[in-house]
From TrEMBL:
This is Nucleoside diphosphate kinase. The keyword NAD does not apply. Its cofactor is Mg(2+). Keywords: Kinase, Transferase. Residues 12-151 form the Nucleoside diphosphate kinase-like domain. ATP binds at K20, F68, R98, T104, R115, N125.
């Protein structure tokens, strides 16, 4: 396939997707992976991790001033279930990933999206996805070492991504 620059429409991108502890408790790991996999996106990194307070605080650094920030960090770091951290790759995967996930508040999320189908509460919305090329780059770097992200090709890539 032609490699359009990441961050431009149709470009091959990588995004950070994380199943939050409530999503793991709810048994949604396979369901989330299936929705990205069946679309044609490529899993290039995955691990279970209980994030440190520092990692969770940095990940959600832009929300520091919000009243729910402390609860959000506690929810991510409690260890009552790990976070399933993933990197997914493919054309427009950052924006498409947000569509697959659905709106932040599950009550606004479309049926057919993960949050729309499985969740009710904004404080228990099961999944995270990077919201821009910039945040995807930062978040992948925060959660993954370079050696934990893999360059690989589908043997049938030409049947998923056309050159034009
Ligand atoms: P996003 O996850 O859709 O990108 P953000 O606005 O970046 O949404 O918020 C990050 C996370 O913070 C949300 O997914 C949710 O878990 C939590 N959050 C956002 N707003 C609220 C709220 O009003 N109450 C409780 N938690 C919230
Ligand atoms: Mg966000």
């Amino acid at each position: 396939p032609v490699k359009t620059a990441a961050g431009t429409k149709g470009g091959i991108e990588r995004t950070f997707i994380a199943i939050k502890p409530d999503g793991v408790q709810r048994g949604l790991v396979a369901e989330v992976i299936n929705r990205f996999e069946r679309k044609g996106y490529k899993l290039v990194g995955i691990k279970a991790i209980v994030p440190s307070k520092e990692l969770a605080e940095e990940h959600y650094g832009d929300l520091k001033a919000r009243p729910f920030y402390k609860g959000l960090v506690n929810y991510m770091t409690s260890g009552r279930a790990p976070v399933i951290a993933m990197v997914w790759e493919g054309p427009d995967v950052i924006r498409q990933g947000r569509r697959i996930i659905g709106a932040t508040n599950p009550l606004d999320a479309e049926p057919g999206s993960i949050r729309g189908d499985y969740t009710i509460s904004v404080g228990r919305n099961a999944i995270h996805g990077s919201d821009s090329f910039e945040s995807a780059t930062i978040e992948i770097g925060l959660w993954f070492k370079p050696t934990e992200v893999f360059d690989w090709k589908f043997t049938h890539e030409e049947w998923i991504i056309s050159a034009n």
